[in-house]
Amino acid sequence: FPLTAADVVDDAPVIPVIVLEEVARAVPMARALVAGGIRMLEVTLRTPAALECIRAIAREVPEAVVGAGTARRSADVQAAARAGARFIVSPGYHPELGRACRGEGLALLPGVATASEIMAAGEDGFEVLKFFPASAAGGAALLQAWSGPFGDVRFCPTGGIHPGNAGQYLALPNVACVGGSWLTPARALAQGDWPAIEALAREAAALRPQPR
Ligand code: 3PG
Question: What value of ipTM does the predicted structure carry?
């Protein structure tokens, strides 16, 4: 049965935002993240290898749930669905993107950074949103301000989040989880340092809300 956006954000405190240059890295990386306790994996459509990486993880790592990030156009959604992605993350929102995800039966975390974008996504039924770019757009203070008018909306802030500030975001009542690229450093991927990635995942999976 299809995954909901709530399933995606409620699985762990962190969704890794992954940039893969080489297909051969995808499967061992996914296994390392799963071994560390993180199984919702956002593979960004930023590299020529991304779709093949999604396909490989979907086929060979059944314990992982692979999604596609940086989806900007409806065509991205269709290609990701064909590759086996189970959810979609976008940096912004457009109704066509929402329609495409509905059409493919895929959960969508639409990206928002303003009240009007939250309202546009809400009009189309999306109430679990990515807040991007979180630290540049206003950080925890903006999330706190949104909790008044948008008290029923939950967010996955992403952009500028790291182990040092993740706990402060997670302490906010309207934050379900955070997203970040720190779990899969380019260097560790290039070197095949799977123990390092597993350790980063384990640390991320253990993150807890931390009031400032
Ligand atoms: C994203 O696409 O969500 C961001 O590139 C991730 O931001 P970060 O690199 O600051 O974690």
Answer: 0.91
